Amino acid sequence: MNYFRDGLVWLNDPLNWTNPGGLFDRLQEHLVITFWAVLIGCAIGLPLGIWLGHRGRGGGVVITVANLTRAVPTLALLTILPLTPIGFGKLPVILALAVFAVPPLLANAYTGLRSVDPETKDAAIGMGLSGGQLLRRVELPLAVPYLASGLRTAAVQVVATATLATFVNGGGLGQIITAGFGLGINVGGNQIVAGGIAVVLLALLVEAVFAGVERLVTPRPLRTVRRRRVARPVTST
Amino acid sequence: MSFLSWVPAASTPLAAPADDGPGNPWFSWQYVNDNAGTILSKLGFHVGITLETVVIALLVAVPLAVVAYWIRPLTGPILALSGVLYTIPSLALLALLAPLLGATNRATVLIALVLYALLLLIRNALTGLTQVPSEVRDAAAGMGYGRFGRLWHVELPLALPGIITGLRLATVSTVALVTIGAIIGQGGLGDLIMGGFWNNFYRAEITTGTVLCVGLALIFDLALVGLGRLLTPWSRRRVA
């Protein structure tokens, strides 16, 4: 527990927060990277998932994409993208993280639209709704809990993975940890632990915030029903 | 600088990319030939630590899942806890373990990997166990099976598909996750990826590490699919 206390002491020093490259700077970088990565992930994953779910096909594509990205190490994307014509900077980091934000968004959007009761859809079609109206007025509102759940998984994953941006000098809270490793375990041990604590707290905070959002946008009658399904898409066949 | 006004394109390059000419190809047999020894040893390390992780995680996860299955009030908390633990970033976990276990220690990486694999395995094993139909359990009890006999002869075999799914997920993500160990020089193929990046952005080294890593994950996955088919012949018969 000695190291843990050293880490807390490091966190208790205001200068470690306000210095250039201190916790505040790194936190801002971290959040900016996360924000853009999740946004790009949404822009790709949600329309695709909603379209596939509405059409009712392409389940194989969704599963393949999810499994493929699981096998690709984040480090590989982070190191390869800057060497392509994209060039160095924050853009390749954001793109690399966005790749890992797509699968949960895609899978949840697809599952959400597929899990709308077929009888409800039949009734809507019988009432004379067109395909677009069916999507906007029936399927999307009923799929909102799934979309929110996908957003939560994606946001937590990106905020956690953004720590690795430090491997390619991309900023973020991981930079605190690598700087500590750079100092060596005897001098930088407290900083390593402090960075670890900060990253864990941020990840848990994001998880809690998005869990709250998920609960807010889920209509009360749907809350009990949703408990039946598995919280995370952990199927791979 | 406001949080929202930040535009990705406006970022300044950190350094000029390495030259695009023939001097820095994406792949080079020359490199593979010259460094076959290093590549093989990194590959061996990667395979070894992955197998070790998965076996240890399996030996711990299945008994835990069985305990959570037998003692129903524990099921919810165990699943919730594993979900929360899974959100902890891998680098942070390494950072918290490294001062305790030694900064360049293989065990540090191994323990972090086992924790992640454990969470995936418990979730899936528990899901598999809870999906055993209650009629089947009743029938087994009626045939005179005790608690352990029922577990060994009825419930675990029926939960095997779930366990195998968890095993596949855990193995594939472990293969990818080992690379993070590169931060303390224990990353197997990750050492190649980072080594290439630090070594003046040497692309051939990065690509070799990446391709081997993805290939390894696919091979393990296929092997586990085959194992699953061997172990659960009844599920194949039902499909046919």
From TrEMBL, chain A:
Any one GO cellular component localisation term in the record: plasma membrane
GO terms under biological process: glycine betaine transport; transmembrane transport
Lipid bilayer topology: Multi-pass membrane protein
Pfam families tied to this protein: BPD_transp_1 (PF00528)
UniProt signal peptide: none
Residues annotated as domain ABC transmembrane type-1: 27-210
Principal location listed in the UniProt entry: membrane
Transmembrane segments: 31-52, 58-81, 93-113, 192-213
Cell location: Cell membrane; Membrane
Family matches, as InterPro entries: ABC_transp_perm/SBD, MetI-like, MetI-like_sf
Keyword Transmembrane among record annotations: yes
Keywords: Membrane, Transmembrane, Transmembrane helix, Transport
Coiled-coil portions: none
CDD domains, alphabetized: TM_PBP2
Family according to the record: Belongs to the binding-protein-dependent transport system permease family.
Name the UniProt record assigns to this protein: ABC transmembrane type-1 domain-containing protein
From TrEMBL, chain B:
Annotated InterPro entries: ABC_transp_perm/SBD (IPR051204), MetI-like (IPR000515), MetI-like_sf (IPR035906)
One Pfam family here: BPD_transp_1
Membrane topology term: Multi-pass membrane protein
Keywords: Membrane, Transmembrane, Transmembrane helix, Transport
Entry annotated with the keyword Thylakoid: no
Stretches that traverse the bilayer: 49-71, 78-101, 107-126, 169-189, 209-231
Coiled coil: none
Xref: Gene3D superfamilies: MetI-like
Domain ABC transmembrane type-1: residue ranges: 43-224
A GO cellular component entry from the record: plasma membrane
Compartments reported by the entry: Cell membrane; Membrane
Record bears the keyword tRNA processing: no
Protein name, UniProt field: Glycine/betaine ABC transporter permease
